[in-house]
Amino acid sequence: MKYAIVCTSFLMLVACGQKASAPPVSKGVGSITRVSPELDGIVPTNAIIEKIAGGFGFTEGPLWREDGHLWFSDVTANVLRSITPGGEVKVLLEKAGGASDAPAGSFIGPNGMVATVEGLVLLCQHTNRRIVQIDRDMKQTVLIDKYEGKRLNSPNDLVYNSDGSLYFTDPPYGLPKQDDDPAKELKFNGVFRYKDGKLTVLVKDLARPNGIALSPDGKVLYVSNSDEKQKIWMRYALAEDGTVSNGRIFASAMVSNEPGLPDGMKVDSQGNIYGTGPGGVWVFSPSGIHLGIIKTPETPANVAWGDDGKSLYITATTSIYRVKLSVTGEKPLYR
Q1: DSSP class per residue in 157-208
Q2: Sheet hosting strand 230-238, strand order edge to edge
Q3: What is the tens place of the pLDDT at every residue in 197-230?
Q4: N or C terminus of the chain with fewer C-beta within 10 Å?
Q5: For residues 217 and 237, what is the distance between their CA atoms, to the nearest angstrom?
Q6: What is the pTM of this model?
Q7: 26-324 is a CATH 2.120.10.30 domain
Q8: How far apart are CA 270 and CA 283, in angstroms?
Q9: What are the tens digits of pLDDT across the range 31-46?
């Protein structure tokens, strides 16, 4: 007997290739914890957290595109999607992290993204353990997949600096057994720099390097460490030659018992840092003062600026959220 596939939800309609009206945006979800009065100048006192869409697997890697869409990764569903500010979702690429037979719920899919100088997209792939360039026709070209002849672990997040150098993190989350996986070839989980075809490792001593960001002047490199035993954000001085020094703990989330770990992050035009972590998006001043937390209903994994540059989009577990702020986000180097 043949059974017809019945599309009964918005996401199923998208998967079946049918058009569907976006579900209404939910407003007034979550809350905002104000630790310092300085947050009022960044997050308006009447700020509202909106839920744009939900029902995904594990959302990550948001990237605003100039056509008015937010691209985002679904790491466990292994899909690359786009969404409009009104909540209309489109599938861009299936098996976006590589073909895998890993158990359901594994982190097999795509992750962080960044735009290139040509306006194309670099995408981190967990299963394929590499960074690829996504062309306008969605064709994939491998950019980085090995360090000194050994396969990367599973590139996670990445950012460009003004000299064209690319910085990225490489934790083991895409490997089923992580550090104990027999397929793991590197003995460390690193932070890398790629410039003029040369790949160098900058940091080897973090257990789980994850989110990565740069200060507006490009002189400070921020890296989050998603380790239950050391829930911290690190700060490194970045020299003109791309090397790092004076690594120190910038902020810590060890005091929090809420679910979540330091993960993806971005900075605004004033140098404030927005780091996803336990319970929400932690906001810090450039000097490391904890200003407050944008608390989403679900544990967040990453953030991106969109719309007019003052909207902070948040990928949080199964959903996409948005909050409109008073400051403009740091514009990405390339569009």
Answers
A1: -EEE-TTS-EEEEE-STTSTTGGG-TT---SS-EEEEEETTEEEEEE---SS
A2: 209-214, 220-227, 230-238, 244-252
A3: 999 999 999 999 999 999 999 999 999 999 999 9
A4: N
A5: 11
A6: 0.92
A7: yes
A8: 12
A9: 999 999 999 999 999 9
